[in-house]
Design goal:
Chains A, B: Residues 481-656 form the Acyl-CoA oxidase C-terminal domain. Two copies of one chain form a homodimer. Chain A is of the alpha+beta class. Helices cover 52% and strands 9% of the residues of chain A. In chain A, strand 2 (152-156) and strand 3 (161-165) form a beta hairpin.
Amino acid sequence: MEGVDYLAEERKKAEFDVESMKVVWAGSQHALEVSDRISKLVANDPAFRKDDRTMLSRKELFKNTLRKAVYAWKRIVELRLSEEEASRLRFYVDEPAFTDLHWGMFVPAIKGQGTDEQQQKWLPLAYKMQIIGCYAQTELGHGSNVQGLETTATFDPRTDEFVIHSPTLTSSKWWPGGLGKVSTHAVVYARLITDGKDHGVHGFIVQLRSLEDHTPLPGITVGDIGMKFGNGAYNTMDNGLLRFDHVRIPRNQMLMRVSQVTREGKYKQSNVPRQLVYGTMVYVRQTIVVDASSALSKAVCIATRYSAVRRQFGSQNGGPETQVIDYKTQQSRLFPLLASAYAFRFVGEWLKWLYTDVTQRLQANDFSTLPEAHACTAGLKSLTTSATADGIEECRKLCGGHGYLCSSGLPELFAVYVPACTYEGDNIVLLLQVARFLMKTVSQLGTGKQPVGTIAYMGRIEHLMQCRCNVKQAEDWLNCDQVMEAFEARAARMSVSCARNLSKYANPEEGFAELSADLVEAAVAHCQLIVVSKFIDKLQQDIPGEGVKRQLEVLCGIYYLYLLHKHQGDFLATSYLNPKQAALANDQLRALYSQVRPNAIALVDAFNYTDHFLGSILGRYDGNVYPKLYEAAWKDPLNETVVPDGYNEYMRPLLKQQLHSARL
Amino acid sequence: MEGVDYLAEERKKAEFDVESMKVVWAGSQHALEVSDRISKLVANDPAFRKDDRTMLSRKELFKNTLRKAVYAWKRIVELRLSEEEASRLRFYVDEPAFTDLHWGMFVPAIKGQGTDEQQQKWLPLAYKMQIIGCYAQTELGHGSNVQGLETTATFDPRTDEFVIHSPTLTSSKWWPGGLGKVSTHAVVYARLITDGKDHGVHGFIVQLRSLEDHTPLPGITVGDIGMKFGNGAYNTMDNGLLRFDHVRIPRNQMLMRVSQVTREGKYKQSNVPRQLVYGTMVYVRQTIVVDASSALSKAVCIATRYSAVRRQFGSQNGGPETQVIDYKTQQSRLFPLLASAYAFRFVGEWLKWLYTDVTQRLQANDFSTLPEAHACTAGLKSLTTSATADGIEECRKLCGGHGYLCSSGLPELFAVYVPACTYEGDNIVLLLQVARFLMKTVSQLGTGKQPVGTIAYMGRIEHLMQCRCNVKQAEDWLNCDQVMEAFEARAARMSVSCARNLSKYANPEEGFAELSADLVEAAVAHCQLIVVSKFIDKLQQDIPGEGVKRQLEVLCGIYYLYLLHKHQGDFLATSYLNPKQAALANDQLRALYSQVRPNAIALVDAFNYTDHFLGSILGRYDGNVYPKLYEAAWKDPLNETVVPDGYNEYMRPLLKQQLHSARL
């Protein structure tokens, strides 16, 4: 029945003020107000409907995305939305589109790498969307290793132009979003060559298509790279390929803020510090961590609500079956993900502070915290995106068979999310960067150089190498100091152990390669420590709202005890814990599951997601799952006719045993 | 270039006879011959083309599958293929279709549960495909708990008929493959009610559609349940919904081999042992384990070949970059999956023996080994399908960005595989069944009842509770007796620990529920032990072919040391190992990676998969990846025109700043 809240009983169980928790999740009262208003604006506008997305063919899907993206822009202009509101609107439209790259990569690249003059020329065009740009970096044969790019930009002093060229097949630009069918311009990364000398990879603004009729300019081959994982998902986006056949651009279209080529073809560096690029990197990674918490929280919201709706087994005397959320096996898989969503939210919030801090220091020419900030953001990007991708798939499995239906929203959520594990740095490659930083830090211990920021704990290495866990009963695991010591000791010992093993190799690079799998594990331990410590820090703050802080304490406990149990091998192998203490942690974890259970629905309600944004029948706010699943099934194109297309050609001859005369 | 083998250098490195390994993988020379012949027959027939599958709309896709399935049947008849060959042909066509359910569920249900008379009536029709059947068990609100099904079959003694009815929305049949659009008949599971008494769930043969024009019969509502996860994948299948409005069928369409309803409406049990159903269950699960090894080996084959083709970083003096397969981080993720594929193959082979053994015992009315066989197959189904689903996704990630392209084959392989974690018993529910069996076994220790089969090790519980690992150097981990003791001690200790914790609860069921997450871990430990022991058993056999056995020893070592490292927490918590010994295991594991490296390509070649079956450009036998990726991209429907559909309606007004007049 419409209008009935099937989860009302669950909502009554909550032991905290949900509205206050919404503020905590959103980050501030202001952020909540904006998100709430914009998400409802999108949800109530039929033009943004998305429940048909997984049934559309590629061409229909792409055209529909063009329509939505342009319509969204029209609304943004009409409603005179602020930059913050516009960005929220695009977020709640929830459909990858060329605008993501235009606003998220093309504009920032010009702002970050262009001279003032270049910015004055190009940004007004981009801001009004009179040109649409993308970010053409990766190539068919070159992803992670930017220095291996093959596209060339050769300066021709006779004409004062660069000649952009794709010398090989593997140098074809490949993957850039918005490139395939939409972008009129691109920031193209290519090897700068002047006077026969290769100066490495630089960015160039290149026009790709006519602004009159959208046809590719001479010398340019451009197209879509084809279908990607999942229904709907990233197939709304025209990830593209691009080849240049000696395409000429004026010299002033090289992005020259950091390096320049003069009229004579001389290569020069400006006095703008190259480290500026790290500021952007911290910013981009911060948004990725926040996106991880959004994606994971969507999946958790769906799985939690459906786990309360769904009943299996346990019927007594013909009564209703047990809600699956009451099973410990379900709780032990679901609640750590709920806790992770909150944990990633708070670490994302902290990264916003870090970005401000780094930016201020860069402006004061203080580069001292950069290596730590770089390692920390690399590690957090890797940790949160991997956990989120796995977590979404786990949530899908937690919904049983129905999680496999597109109408559950989970298949598309997974497919659209997983690229985050690969883009902006492959997650394993990033962990190896963290590991390098850890090994360097260890090697500098005792030199008087004090580790700062998230690695400061290494300054207490002597204590951390020898301390032993003091836990005597399960509740001792609620002591945050105890927990911090445990995670610090584990991370420090794993790093030191790797450093010792490395020192056995004559060639350090060879050792690093040989031990890289262990180094990755040490990096993970370090990154988990950061997330745990930022969650614990959050709890030190004043958090208003009845019962809100208490719920966050429970979630924090679940987060770190879940990690402790999952990685108990690390804690035991480094001899910080004994098996008895590990078992007590597990007992405490189980006790916390019982505490979170009555609050579970309210804790996902606090995300404040509309049914439109969730895009899941299983995750409906009102819990009215089964009638809506039934209704949705009939909308499949296959149900347009009772007897399917193909019956007369293929099935009838089979059933009538007339196959010999059938044309197959 | 066509015809060039870009992996030739890799193939030359192999230290074993690949042809002999092909026999090992296939199971026998005969099996290899059949697989080789039939897979090539499919690959060379353009009618079975599948590289366009992910680009088709739902209706096109479904119609195309109808065509292929019927064409496959035509070829089977024309070529007079044997049952084995026909089944292989359907396997290599590699597209879920109604025929899977017709042959795999409908026919076996009638054979297993029908009387001789019923078999004589229905099987000839089914064998000739004059009727097409499916298996209608699960309902919208009822999956795992078969006893909770709501559909009723009420006997009407006046007319000698059953009245099949769907009393609620949640009783709608939901998910059965082949039901939505194709099947003319179904085996329907419904609660049998005679004279007001509910006799529980039984099977009934029900005609759904007219054999004349395929329209649903009166009282029957049938349709497709809509889009499922992934492009192509299971969307080729018409998983269906079905509702009955008092549909009448003759009494003789209840499957009456085990229970009967007489003309007078009396409910009777025959003397056919109910345990017979377990024989079928062992058979079905055995095929699922073999399928797991097939799916995982496909993913591993793709990821291994592409890891040899792909180069990233490490270029020295402008030379080529390093093949990614040479990175230890890549090896430590890829090679355990390669080893797992072989491990699952051998445990699947052993399950074939178990099925024969169980069948023979059942025929002799010996039910003594059934509980053990039931627990063992439940656990192996769960273990192998979970590891395979995760493993496919890991292989996809191991291919970097390009693994996200449908042309890599991996997205579809994942999407089509994951349901195996849910169907035929949810994987967690199955592990809890294993745990129940383990707890029962522990409780019976000392009663004189000797544990048999895969649980026999529990008979040595005293030794296993107190023994300590003898490993002193890394190579000691190559000693299979040592390894068996380690895995047995871990499994036994985890079970005993659970049993002790359970005994603290006054109500055992409550304790089982509370500790279920721990019980699942104990069950996993037991199941991993089974897989390890069957791999080690395999190595005791005579295995011909130069170097073949040696390679299998290396893979076996990788399999168990990978598990040992991944679960070192279990081994350390149960105090069988000390941290030093765990570290030595890791050292040995790393050494084995180096040994398998030169043989990696040959080890995946031994699967003998055609490029058609693999369906992956990244996994091409000849390694000619990049030109073929480039070629494939142009086939996307979006590339049919240079300027995309929607440019004039949406983009041009945007670029020309004429949005105000645009119709969006």
